[in-house]
Write a structure and sequence with these properties.
This protein is mainly beta and 231 residues long. It contains 3 helices and 11 strands; from the N terminus they run ααβββββββββββα.
């Protein structure tokens, strides 16, 4: 366990000494709220809201909202179809031009154990409809995330994941890649809810960005509520 904690601290400080541009020098923030609602044995609905900032709780960058329908093929395999709406502010240190995005994505997740370590794979395909001030742009992205989540004790856990993202080049959009390295300390506040405090290192278009994250994650099993209503 000491090795896991040391790895977490290493990831938290990774690349912090290499910032160059004014945008890279700023420590930004990322607030997240994610809910999951189990409505049948094989079906759940999830939603999320994310707010990104160029600085800590200041200088708005990005708003993400989405809703997903998930089909649980087995305890290890889950598929999902999602719709999301985004507001993207391209300005730094001032309000810039906004891009509004409608996004669809399809994904499959697979979980297994490697020795005693839980492993989580997520593969996603996205269709992005970007409404810019000058024109409308459509592009596709592919994403793969590899992660793990392990317990420290009954109340604390650590999350680690790394995600590779590739935008497919078209006549109206450049092809580029992105990498997101994430580590977080989680606290179970209820049986089905937790808070995570973490760090995201985002490499995109030659920029090395640093974000602190505060997230709230919860699950609700509506099947139990239905059973109670019948009694």
């Amino acid at each position: 366990m000491k090795n896991y904690i040391a790895l977490f601290l290493l990831l938290f400080n990774l690349n912090s000494a290499f910032a160059q541009s004014p945008l890279e020098e700023q420590l930004g923030s990322w607030f997240t709220c994610v809910g999951n609602y189990r409505i049948a044995d094989n079906i759940s609905i999830s939603n999320s809201v994310q707010s990104w900032h160029y600085e800590i709780a200041d200088n708005f960058s990005f708003l993400f909202t989405n809703i997903s329908v998930n089909y649980h093929i087995s305890p290890k395999v889950t598929t999902a179809f999602s719709y999301g709406f985004m507001d993207i502010d391209s300005g730094f240190e001032r309000s810039g031009t906004h891009t509004y995005e409608n996004r669809l994505f399809e994904q499959i997740g697979y979980k297994h154990n490697l020795a005693k370590l839980p492993i989580d794979h997520r593969f996603r395909i996205e269709q992005r409809f970007l409404n810019k001030t000058t024109d409308n742009v459509f592009n596709n992205r592919i994403r793969y995330r590899l992660g793990t989540k392990f317990k420290i004790n009954k109340s604390l856990f650590i999350c680690l994941n790394d995600e590779f993202i590739a935008t497919i080049q078209t006549k109206t959009s450049d092809g580029f890649t992105e990498n997101r390295l994430y580590s977080a300390l989680g606290i179970n506040v209820f049986k089905s809810a937790n808070i995570q405090v973490g760090y995201l290192n985002r490499n995109i278009k030659g920029l090395n960005l640093h974000r602190l994250q505060l997230g709230f994650f919860y699950k609700t099993d509506l099947r139990k509520n239905k059973l109670k209503d019948k009694n």
